[in-house]
Structure formats: structure tokens, C-alpha cells
Amino acid sequence: MIWLWTALQALTLLGVVNYWRHLPKERKIEAPKGVVVILSVRDEWDGGANLIARLKAQSAPFRLLIATSGNCPAADLLAAREGDWVQVVAAGVAVDEGQKVHKLRAALRALRPDDRYLVFIDADIEPPVRLVGRLLFPLVRGKADIVTGYRLLLPERGAMAALVGAVEMQLATLPRSANATMPWGGAMALTREVANRLDLAAALAGRLSDDMTIGLAGWRAKLRLRPVRDLLVASPLEGRTADLLDFGVRQYRHIATNSIGMWALATGVVAVQAGAWAWALGWGGWVAVAIGYGAAWSRALVRRVIIGAVLEPAQAAKARRSLLWDMAAPFAVAWAHLAVQLAAATSNGICWGGWNYRVKGGRVIRMDRA
Fold this sequence. Notes:
This protein is of the alpha/beta class. 52% of the residues lie in helices and 18% in strands. The strands form two sheets. The chain has a seven-stranded mixed sheet. A three-stranded antiparallel sheet has the order 8-9-10, covered by helices on one side. The chain has a domain at 25-240: Spore Coat Polysaccharide Biosynthesis Protein SpsA, Chain A (Alpha-Beta Complex).
């Protein structure tokens, strides 16, 4: 058993090393004409001063299309002040699909004839200046059909936020390949041609998850989905313990309600690691524990290098808080990861953005105000 444990830990370490070794040394960008960045915001959005400043600093020009439900004063004020590059579209309130999806579909209907490249972002990210240009590079060069970055959580304070960040960092630093990539809606791009090919507005109709729907549609159409490994995009994380746990469960419930097979595969992989840690601590003896901690510290050191290479210094300092869990209690990270995966499969209910949804096969079957 000790040899299987050693092999498992070696594989997990090699996976993180593989991610680090494939970080692009040259982070090339493209800045074509006809780029529109689509941002969905809630009614209570405060205008995102930091986000807007970061978008203005982007290395590639674009038009910003903000999708609201129709009652977001901050978005209307921004458009009135900066109408030369900001447009607001009001979607109204959904009745049979996710509110975010409803707003994105309204944005797609509001596209102009010369909008050739579509970039989707979330309101809670801290994008680097290269974000838009890096997402566009594979599209312009004809190397991909759908391009994506990935979220890297920045725990603001508290042990629970750092633990959730540690779980997410396991996913963020997994080896990535074109045939095993699911896009993340917080930093995703595709061409207008691909959107038309997928009939994107129709594909999203009735759905709750935007990125899962686009990713699965892309897989079925045999499109080339490509990750940009240096785009681990900072996303602040804070809140009460219950809110943080709900966040983790919600992410996996999106997966489970769209593709139970994908959920089962991910849960099985984590269950092996979680079960192996239980064996090591209970019956493996000090040698097994030493091997586990040695691999965990090695993974943390490599992740520290990755974080420093892709994030700004202040962002990296926050992200490194999650590494403390990997170094002090790596078994707790594995067990917490498995716990949220299992909890996700206990219900098809998802509370998100002020709404309670019931989802079956990725489709909204009922929605009520939270």
C-alpha cells in the first residue's frame, strides 16, 4: 500500500509541475478591431470602480456591453458618462432561465454587425492588463474556437476563506489540455462566427449555467477549447462561513446538474486522494505521513511559483494564504473538497444571485425569489 500511496502523491506533484512547466514564457496578445466585452451585472452593482479602471488599462481596445435586468443605476450612470465605449442593455426579469443567462442572451441580441470577437467577463474579477489581448491571441491566430482563463480566489480574511481558496487552487493548477477543458465564464472568448455556429442565444435558452452550457455545446460540436495557462484571474473571496461553503457547493452543483458523469469523475478522483489520506493518518504510519506532507509541501512551493508568475504582487500575497492549508493540513483540503462535491449531489436546488432555482439536465424547471 505504501508504494501506491507514494505513486499517488508523485502523480499529484507531477500534475502541478506540469502546469508550471507549460506556463507561456512569451505572453503574446492580439488587438483586432471589432471586440466587444460582455459583462453581466446585478441591480445592486456599485459601478465596479476597480474593474472599470482595469478594463480601461487593457492592452487591446474593445467596446463594453453591460447587461442588466433594467434597474441598475450604476450601469446607467457609467454609460451616460462614458457612452463612447460603454453600452447598456436591459434584459428584464427571467421567468424560466438563469437571470445571468437571461442578461447574456439580451446582450447577444444587442450585438452590432461589426462585433467580430466576443469576450465574457464577471464583475468580481481583478483582470490583468493582458486579459483581453491574451484571450484574443489564440482566436486571431486560428489556434482555438473557444478560449478561457480560470479563477484564482484571493481569500481576504479568515481560515475558511483560505480553505475554500485551497480547494479552488487544486482545480486551477490542474494540467490542462484542449480535449479536457471546460470554459470559465469569468474570462472567456469566442468569435462571432463560433457564436453563430452554436446558435448561442438558443443554446443558452432555459439554462442556468452559462459556461457549462457553452462548454458542453462546444464539446458536442467538436470545437477546439483552449486554456490560457497564464490567465489565472484574481477573484476576491470573503464572507461568512455558511456563504463560503454555499459557494463551493454551488460550483459543483452546476456541474452535477449539467453532467452527472463529469461530476462523478471529478468526485472519484478526489475521493481516492481523500481516502488515501485517511489510510495514511490512520494506518500508514509515520513514513506514509512524511511522504504525504513532503508531496504537499512540494506542491505548495510549485504553486507559490505559479502564483508569483501570473498575479500582481498584492494579489499573490492574498492567494498565498491558501497555501498554508496545503502545508499545515493537506488532508483537510482533500476532505473539504470531497465534502462539497458530495453535498452538491444531494439536491438540484441552486441559490444564486438572489434567486432559488430548481435545475434538471442543466435546464431551469422552477425559479423563485430568494
